[in-house]
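Example 3.2
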Amino acid sequence: MTHDWREHVPRLENLARTLGLDWSPVIFEAVPDSFMTEIAVYGLPVRMPHWSFGARYIYQLVQRHMGYSRLFEVVFPGNPGHAYLASSNGIADNILVTAHVLGHADFSKNNLLFRRCQEQGSEHIVEHAASHARQIERDIETYGQSAVERVLDAALSLEQYIDHDQALRREHYPEYVASSKLRVDDVFRTRFTALDAGVCAASESRNIRAHLPPHPERDLLWFIATYAPEMESWERDIFLAVREESFYFYPVYATQIMNEGWASYWHARLLREADFIPQAAYLDAIKCHSDVVRPIAAGEKSSLAVNPYHLGFSLWEDIVKRWGIDAARQIRREDDDFSFLRNHLTLDLATDMGLFRYQREQNGQVKVVSGEIEALREGLLIDKYNFGAPRVSVIEVRSDGTLVLQHDTQLDGRGLDVERTRKVLQYVKSVWRRPVLLKTVDAASQPVEVSADSAAAA
C-alpha cells in the first residue's frame, strides 16, 4: 500500500482531466495544524498583522479543541492556486482532500464571478498579500505601532464595505456638474444669448461643483481612501490594500454553497472512478466523505445549522441527474449562491433534506415558521446580502467636512447594534478627521442619528 498521499496526486489529476475538469496549477503543501488554524483565521498564508486576527485565532482554537471544528484543508484560488493540507490528516483524508481541491480549482477558474474579481485584482493574491504585510511592517517602523494600528482598526472594521459591481480601479467622481447644452428649439434662449456674446461666454465658463458623492456610495473603503481630507498617502495605501483583499474574498463568500457542493460532488465522483486507490484507503475516504456532506454541521448544538457541503452536494447531484453534466458546468460558470438556490432548490429537494425556516424564542424553544420554498430560499440567503454586512452608504459630505452615512433600513431588513456602530464610527472618524454620523432607525422605526461621540441623538 502506498503510504504517501502525494503519490496519488498526479493520477487523480489525470483522472480529473479525463472527466473534463479544467483548472490552473495547484501547489499542494502539508502544514502543521497550528499553521492551518492561522491560515484559516487570517484568510491568507501571510497577511497584514492586526489584533483582531488573534481574537479569531483563539476562537477557532477553542472550537477545534471542543470538537466543533476540524480543518482538513484551506484553498486559495489563483494561478497557481495554493492548497494547504493538515499534516495530521491520514492518507485517506488527503486523497479525498486532493480530489476536493481539484473541484475547487475547476470552479474558481471557470466561474465568471471568480474570473472577474481575479482579473481586476490579481491571480497572485498570496504574493500580493505578503507584499501588503511587508509594507505595513515598514509603516510600523516609520510611523509607529499605534498609528498603523489605528488605521488598520478603521480599514478592517469596513472590510465588508466594497461595491463588487464597480471596478477595483476606479476613477474619481467628476469635480464639476456637466454643463447643460442649449436646446436648439428654444427660440427665446437663442435670441437672448445672441444679444451679448460676452454674457453667453460668462455663463458657459461658470462651473458648478458637483455634489459629493453624486449618488449613494456603498464602497466605503474606496470613498474614504479617495476623499478623506487629511489622510496621508500611507494611510490611503492601507485602506486600498484591505479593499483589494476584500475583492479577492468576495466570490469565495458569495459562492460558498455551490463551490463547496461542486468540490464535494467531484471528490465523490473521482473516488468512485479512481480504481488505483487501495481498498482500505478508499473505504476510509468514503467514510470521510459521509462526514463532510452529512446534513448537520457538527455536534448537537449545530443541529439546526445548514451544512453548505451537504446542501450544495445535494443540489449538484440533482442537477446532474436531471439535466446532465454539461448543464451543470454552465450553471457553475454563471451562477452565484443567490441564483443557484433560487433556481435549483426545489420544494421536493428541501423536503428530502428536511429544510425548514425556524425562529428561536426568548425562552430557548425553537418554532418552525414555514416550509414555504420561497421563504426558505430567502432565509438561507439573508446573511449573504452585501457581504453579510448591513447596507450602509455615504450620502453626503457637508460643508464643514462632516461625513454622513445612511443605513438602508428598508432594503436591509436588519437593525444595528448601536454600541458596535458607534465604535465603528469612532474608527472611521480617526482617519476622516471630521465628524461622522450615521442615519438609521431605532427599535420603534423612528429616525435616529448615531455619531462617533454619542450613543444616539434624535
